[in-house]
Each structure stands twice: as C-alpha cells, then as structure tokens.
Amino acid sequence: MFSFFKKKPVAPEAAPAAPAAVPAPAQPASAEPAAPLAYEVETAAKPEPKQSWMSRLKAGLSKTSANLSILFVGAKIDDDLYDELEAALLMSDAGVDATQFLLDALKRKVKEDKLLDAAQVKDALKQLLIELLQPLQKPFELGRHQPLVMMISGVNGAGKTTTIGKLAKHMQAHGQSVLLAAGDTFRAAAREQLMVWGQRNNVTVISQESGDPAAVSFDAVQSGKARGTNVVMIDTAGRLPTQLHLMEELKKVKRVIGKGMEGAPHETLLVIDGNTGQNALAQVKAFDDALQLSGLIITKLDGTAKGGILAAIARVRPVPVYFIGIGEKIEDLQPFNAAEFVEALLA
Question: Which stretches does the entry tag as region Disordered (predicted)?
Fold first, then answer.
C-alpha cells in the first residue's frame, strides 16, 4: 500500500494553452506544495485485499526462495552447507561479489555468536541480507518541485510503459495531477500504448505523430508548468545500452528537459526486468554512466529464479530501488522494502 503525508487543498487556477496533446479532461492546478510527500510502505492503515502484499511477494519470489530456504532444513553447519549456499546465491544471480561478501560475513557471525542451529544461521543470513539491501530502500518523494519531472528509461520488454501507467494511477490516487509524454518515438507501438494508459487513467498525453523525442519532452515540461500539473512523466525510447547512438540521444533528451525547466529531470529512473539477472546489472551500469540514475524500478520478479540480482546491485552499483513489481495488476507494483523482500526471499 502507499502512504502519504497530506497536503492542504488549494484552489484551482486558470492555465494557459498547452502544446498539442491527446485530449483528456482538465486536471486541477496545484500551487507550490508546502512539503514533500513520500511513498512509504503502510503497515496497518487500510484493510488488506484478499491476498496481502506479503503473500503475493512470497509467491512471486518462490522460485528464488526455493533454492535458498531448503538448504537450512535439518542442515548441519559445515563446509557443505556453505558450498551449497554459495551455489544457490550464484544461481539466484546475486553475483560473485555479493555472494562472497555474504558468505564471509555469515561465517564470521556463526563463529562469533557460536551459532549451532540451522534456523539461527538462516536468521543470521536474513539480517545480513537486510543490511546489504537497506541502502537501496528510499522513499519516493513527491512535491519537491512544481511540476516534478520524471524521465523514465529502459530496454524494450522491461515493462517500462506499463509501469508508467501503473505509477500514474497510484499518484492520482494520492491527489497528484499527472501528465504523460510519449517520448518513445523509436518503437512503433509505444506512442499508442501510452495513449491507451492515458485514456484509462484520464490523463493527458503529450505526443507528436513522428516527433523528435527531445522536442516532445520539452513540450511536455512546458505544458506541465502551464497547467500547474504536479507530475510530468516522460517515456523515452527503449534501447540496449550497446546502441551507443541511441544512448547519446537519451543524453540529449535529458539536456533538453533541463532547458525546459531548471534542475529537471528531478528523477531519472530505469525500469529493469528482474528476469534478466546479471544482464540487468549491466543495464544499471550503462544507464547510470550515461544518465546518472536517481532510482530503479524492478519489474517481473514473479516467476523468476533470479531475485538475488538486488544483492548484486547493492554491492556493485547501489542505485535506490523505488519500486518492485510482481505481477500485472496495479497493486502488484509496490515500494521496495528491504526487510519485506528478505522475509519473502528466505520464507
């Protein structure tokens, strides 16, 4: 669930005309917010749905969890256990660095605390994993800028456009007016896909028939400022980090957004597919080098045996993970919480 600090209501203001856009009912304008808002995991505010988030998270991570949790069932604390744990962590795509770090720390803890029971060792591993992943946990703050401009990137197939639609819906649910920009002019169906999400969420989509992505992005920022919109989300073309000419185009888009509004984009996010394992880590490195990422959204963690990739990211390139996705439904995209994630991973 999402939890926010409340904002005081403000009277809507008249807005000047905006650039050409897919029409949608006007959204109320918003004055300069008094204080930032933040997505936080809510523990006991609203009634739980039929299947709670933790239940869905455990189910989504079950393939990764199965290879790890079974090791501690009636196990002896010996070299064989450590060898099996090393293999399981590597299979989960935790990577060599994170795997060695966790094993060394676990061996020290077992020795220092004189742990003799497999359940105690499992609990110790949980705590070490939480400590490793904790730096990735960061609330997503809203209201710091008017509008808050988000540039969202990712390779084709990562679920980028769908994630934008889900985020827009969540933000609307918490009183934020949203404007979308169809800056992915590289993929034929991307514009249409974003427009469908715009219609579904009753959100305006700034778009051009065959426009330059930087121009579309600039228009969207200007429109967001004119309308008094709270959040402008800019979809950018999916591309592989090895496509250097396209990566250069992404840098150009970011520069042009900055010309549209000083300090923008305020969030530069990368959507990555949790199924891709170590390839996801390569994407984080490449996009972070090019764009200086402020956060990650990891999708499709359900059904993958590669949930250990977060440990690899934490060790090699600790970019904050704002959200994780474990399904197709709106509620299946939730803020990342290290303790919850580890509990589901080592259930």
Answer: 1-33
